[in-house]
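Q: what sequence does this backbone want?
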């Protein structure tokens, strides 16, 4: 477990960089790392997917540190804070910490 990754993700959220994190995790950012995607095993990929779902929920409905569900357009959308925590504890698979540091540096200017 690395607290560095966890602190960097928390800092990105404090700076309201949720869109940037989502873009990094989906490969739609200059800070995305294709090699980080390729290195993921099946469990890491699942964690990344659940963490991404949690971030998308947070973007739409706000920060939540407990599991919540919202019914919208006939669908039930849920947050996944435990998976998000597990993803951070696993070292944020799918994100390059170097590129995350670069994002934070660039956005803090």
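A:
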């Amino acid at each position: 477990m690395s607290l560095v990754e966890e602190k960097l993700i928390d800092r990105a959220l404090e700076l309201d960089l949720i869109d940037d994190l989502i873009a990094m995790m989906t490969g739609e950012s200059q800070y995305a790392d294709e090699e980080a995607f390729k290195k993921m095993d099946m469990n890491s990929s699942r964690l990344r997917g659940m963490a991404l779902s949690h971030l998308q929920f947070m973007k739409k409905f706000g920060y939540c540190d407990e599991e919540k569900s919202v019914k919208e357009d006939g669908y039930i959308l849920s947050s996944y804070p435990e998976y998000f925590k597990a993803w951070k504890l696993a070292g944020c698979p799918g994100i390059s910490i170097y590129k995350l540091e670069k994002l934070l540096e660039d956005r803090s200017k």
